Structures are given as structure tokens and as C-alpha cells.
Give the backbone structure.
Amino acid sequence: MADNTDFIIKQNPYKDRLLLCAYLGKESVVKVPDGVTKICSFAFADQDKPNETITQIILPDSVEELEKNAFVYCTALKEIRWPENGELSMGGDIFKGCTSLEKISIPKNVRELGSFKMPENLKTVEVHDDLILLGQGYSCFTYESDDAIKTCYDSQTIRILTQNPTYQLIDGFMVNTKHKTALFYAARNQKCVRIPNGIEIIATCCFDEAGYLSLSKEEIEMTDFKKFDSELRDMAEREICGANCVHLEKLIIPKSVKEIKSFAFWNCSDLASIIYEGKTADLKYDDDSFNFCDELENQDPKIICSDTEKIQKAKCKKISDELSRILLIDQKIRSGCYPSAEKLAAEFGVGIATIHRDLDKILFFSHTDCPTRKELIKFDHHEKGYYYTKAFKLDIEATLLNL
């Protein structure tokens, strides 16, 4: 076993964490010291100096993160003993160049995988029941020599996942049936798609229309990234689909779905219609769910729910009622009857706070030079009600048109 002098371990100055930066020993079985929380890239070897000695690496339970390239070019490595902690973050390509590695089991505490490049000799990959995100979709598991474009429809990911009965292809979707999560849409090339009944979560990158292309660091740093996306799409169409390639335009979501994760529809530039068969309040999502969805950019709401029309009508009625109330309050104050907030609230069936907001809006619509409402609308303690301090014209319609 290696001793602590064989390791270069540094402390993160911003967090109470120990980082394993390098292993300098010559042992075949390497036990990483307790307390290390992160294994850095190229900690054991790199392409210029492969490690031909290490056969087993034992990680303590303190390890929480494995950076990209953490175990690369350990050419004799056959086994990793994983930590058993709450959650483990695993970067991509951690086993590149590990030519002796024949079997790997994704640890139970890894629930999200970005990409997983497999060395050529790796024959078996076992996955557990709790993977809820595959950042590269159906290209998550690929061999090092694979052409990223051509693996789009010949997916190792599908082969590996479906060896575990928890993962099933349902209506073109790779589904984690335990978590009722649609991980990615594998069928592609359909303009109109319906999520299967029973799905509750649409995962990140589920419909990523550029996800089958692996981008290098240099490509990601290109300045005109939006244009580059378009070039990637055009290349994929030529290489994979030919001239008949189509993109998602319409999506139907059953009411069983309760959440859409961020970036679920990343780069679905032609997606123009999303229909949810449930109610608005039952579906959780945010604007990041639709990044680079050009056709949806100016749509509000982006998703049409079963009660959308009803809600919009109620919203319009509320606005209409509010403006009518403001006009009536204005007339009462102008008439010199000194209405109070309490009397107005009782008359209109609203709260006193609502009346105060209405008075603020009277100031807004007045176009006077009064900086505060109390300078325009004062309370007369003798009459016990409001009066205007100056003449003005209340012009709601013109104000709204100019907003």
C-alpha cells in the first residue's frame, strides 16, 4: 500500500477540502488517504507518462468529486473501489487510456453522468437504478474511437442501460421507470412527439437537438457559438439523416408530468408548440428549460395548459376590474365626498392594502410632478377621507399604450 508521502495533496483555500493533485508512488494497489474530497485531473498519469503499475485504486468515503480525466492512462488498472458517501460527482472521460479495464460498475452514489468515454477493452458497464440525468443523452456511453456523429443512432448508451430492467425504451424515449423520468428521446426525426403516459419528470437534455455531437474545448470557446450550433446541425443532417432530417416542432405532454428540468429542450430551435394536458399549477419549469428554442422565445406562456385560456380570461377580468375600480375611486375623490380607505375597501370588497395600491396607481396615471402619493392624495383628518391637492387629468389609456 502507498503511504502519504507518495501523494501531493493540497487544500482548497476557499473551502475546507483536500485535493489529490498527484500520485508519485510505485505501488500496484493505491489507497487514497482519508480526508481527500476530490481527485484532480491526471492525478495518477497522463498521455506523456502513463502509469503501467497501478492495478487497483481504493477511494475513501470522503471523496465527493472525480474530475474529468481523473484515472486516465493507468494502463494496468483493473478495479476501482468506490466511496460509499451521499453523492459522488463524476467528470467525463475518467478512464481514457485504461486499456486493461474490462468491467466497471457505475457507483450507486453517482446519479448524474455527463459523458462516459469507454476504453476499447471495456466489455461490461453495469448501471444502477438511480441515474436521473445523462448529460450527453444517447451519446453518454461511447468508445474512445467512436465518431460522435455516427454513434447517434447506434447508441451504446441504449445497449448498456437496457441491460438493467429499470431502463426501458417506451415510445421512443429512454425511461427510468423507477423514477418515472424521461432521460432522452432516442427516436428523433419526428415533427410531433407525445411524452408517454406515466412520465413525471422530463430530464435535462432530454430533447437536446445538438447533444449527439461532442464538442471540444476549442470548439466551445469559438466566439460565434450560435452560428456554430447551426453549422453543427447542418453537419449532423448531412452525416446522419441526409436531406430529409426534421426537427421537433410540436410536443404534447400528459398530465402525469410534474416537472421539466433546466435545458430539457436545449437547441430545439423549431419547437413552436407545447401542449400540457394538465393544469398550469401542476407543472414546474423555468425559462432555462427552453434555451435556444428560437420559436418559443417570445411566446408567453410557452406551454399551453388545459386551463390556460381560463387563467388568461381571469387575468384580463382582474385587470379590467382593477382599472374600473381606480376610475371609480378617482370619481369619488374628485366629487369631494372624502372617501376613506376603509369605506372604499368595504364598498369594492377588497382589502385596504389593495386600495392603497390603487391610490399609488392614481399617482402613476396622473402624470403630475408629485413624487409621492401623499403629496397628491392627502388624508383630511377632519373629514376622515382623501382629497386631491391639485387638478390633473387621469389618463389611464394613454399611459398603458405608451408602456
